[in-house]
Amino acid sequence: MNIEKFENYQRLAHAMQSGVATDQNTGSRCGEPKHLRVGINSAMSDAGGLVKLLIAKGLFTEDEYLDAITESMQNEVDRYEKLLSERLNTSVKLA
């Protein structure tokens, strides 16, 4: 596994978490406990199984997967930055 790619993904995941926390602390009810936990567990289980199968079948490599999820996480960070910037009427940069 490419450690630099993994560290970049982790950095983006942390930024996304900060966006979720700020979203919840400013009025969103999207993260209520049961709804959140069921969704997370289901998504992780489904995605993990699918990725394992596709890598085993040679459709893509672990590095290609890491590139794809990093890009997707960046999109999620961008989405929260936009949402929070509009809600708080200031420029928000998640790190």
Q: Termini separation (Å)?
A: 24 Å
Shape label: flat
Number of strands: 0
- Average predicted confidence as pLDDT: 91
**Estimated share of beta-strand residues:** under 5%
Helix and strand pattern? HHH
Give the secondary structure arrangement, pairings included.
Elements: H1 3-25, H2 33-56, H3 62-88
Helix pairs in contact: 1-3
Description of the structure:
This protein is mostly helical. Helix 1 runs parallel beside helix 3. The mean pLDDT is 91.
Briefly characterize the structure.
This protein is an all-alpha fold. 78% of the residues lie in helices and 0% in strands.
Highlighted features:
single chain, 95 residues, mainly alpha
